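Much of our argument rests on the idea that a fold can be written as discrete symbols. The record that follows shows the chain in one-letter code together with its fold in token form.
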Amino acid sequence: MQKRIGILTSGGDCPGLNAVIRAVVSHATLTYDWQVLGIPYATRGLLEQKAIPLSFHGLDLRGIDPLLNMGGTILGSINKGDTLAQIDNILKGYKALELSALIGIGGDGSLAILNELQTKGDWQFIAIPKTIDNDVALTERVVGFDTAVNTIVDSLNRLTFTAASHDRVMIVEVMGRSAGHLALQAGIAGGADIILIPEIPYSIKDVCLHLQQLRDRWGRKFAIVVVAEGAKVADDSCCYTSCQTPSCGMGQYIAEEIRNCSHNQLDIRVSVLGHIQRGGIPSALDRLVATAFGKAAVDLLAAGETRKMVAWRNGKVEAVPLEMVLDRSPLHVDPNDYLVQTARALGIYVGNKVDVSVALTS
């Protein structure tokens, strides 16, 4: 009997998901002669017992393959709702679709839910990590992160010119509610002067002092501040504003803090990149990672493996136990990480390192 495997995308979208789907369908049909069914809108598709037959030649358009460089996901995705409350009906949907196995593409939250489902349903299941937050454990790369970093760096490049032209402090708010990988890496690559992330609390006094030193010591009349949406203020930091995060957004909150701390001497603008970070054409690296992950996931199913996640480790794809991944996720930035040290060595302020006793001058 021909093997029928399902594939779904769950959680927030990111560039490279369609490249994974393309690789899975191509390898499964051409190498193993399996039938591949796309499950629309993640577990909702299982709940509603819906599936889309996918074939290698059915993915192209007049001979042109669009999936390799198409952002988002052709299968749709969801990142809300109480999935586990409907677990019995989801399991019924899986059986009704007569699936032999399932490949799930998601971040640590989505994969945790899918892991519970496959444990209850005794499915053959392989996970593929994707997230622009880069917070999935036991893998050096995930689908979508590289493109998101490039998107932010491109934005920083553009904002730097206008900041320099008008002597402004540009505050750029990026995603990262609990992990600061995106802000840290994009900030370093994009030439930021200050990077604020959830893992390393910042002091507004330090921030203002750093901005002051840029002007007084180095003659820099503009600055770029990259702020993760989940940045944390240190206990010793003064609060100068009535703006309460997250109601007004972390970028706006910090802007008001700096404005008041500097006695309104700085011209400040805030840019919230928002879902721009999730969109766009996947980078070459994300396409390569997505393709390698998709191929490896199919091979793991063929070998009878289950409850594994494909991971990029030491320059190649390996299978790691999914339970171990979930136990160690989300993966946070280590305050002593080499990238944090690199940023500080370049004169970038990345949260509190030492106590600052120097009083601010107007």
